[in-house]
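Re: weekly structure request thread

Next one in the queue (282 aa):
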Amino acid sequence: MAGTALTAFSHSMEVTPMRIGFIGVGNMARAIIDGLLANKTVAGSDLYLHSGHIEHYGDYAQTIGAHVMNDNAAVVANSDIVVLAVKPKIYGRVLDVLQPAFAEHKVVLASIVSGVSLAELSQHVPAGQPIVRLLPNLNVKIGAGMTAYAINDAAEDDAQTVLGLFDAIGKTMELNEDDFSTFVALAGSAPAFAYLFIDAMARAGVKHGISKADAVRIAAQTVAGSAEMVLAGTTSPSDLIDQVCSPNGSTIRGYLTMEDKGFSSSVVAGLDATIARENGGD
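Done, posted below.
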């Protein structure tokens, strides 16, 4: 499969009940789980969890009503989809131990391990194992995520089941794996940059007499509404800027001052540094 088409399913879409396992229960795994539970795509009783330290996730599992499994093989044995959410440095060891479990049970492996390709994953599972590689961002927690995906040939018939889950907590886009590092910068890391922009706007509001709490609300809603304007139609961000900037007005004065101070070039430089680091640079 190839292309970069954005799929936009209704968040109220019905997903066939299924058992979903999580190997690793860190921040991203919990964001996915919380998003799926919030919109009732799954119930806590549909979830099977295991991670290295029960003290780090046992209370969370009990709160949401999920099953805590004794080991990763039990997660595979009880699941239809297994989300691999471990640190990149241990993924190979984790999967190597699970090869007999994957051979015995028909499950789809959905990996959210950063920087690990389909080809690398396939070296640690039985031949023919369906694999979907996913890069979600933390906004899946509130049903507003952006997730890139790629699939192997074995997952052609099974991918839609996995993607239906992520369509329920945001948007999905199929990308070539060569573009995943750029996606990490644009979707995975960029929320931090968006928060930085909102915070900077709010600080300017404080400078001019508005409380920080009110300034944050104003800035955040403005950014959210502006993003909706971009997503709602075919007008480019550049054209939308022109619509706001009246001749000799205050907005064009502020816009040009930001550009004079290096706003756009700083954003591009920040993304360049993020992509370089994602690709293994210092």
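Residues 183-278 form a domain with the ProC C-terminal domain-like fold fold (CATH 1.10.3730.10). The chain has two domains: 6-175, 183-278.
Next request, please.
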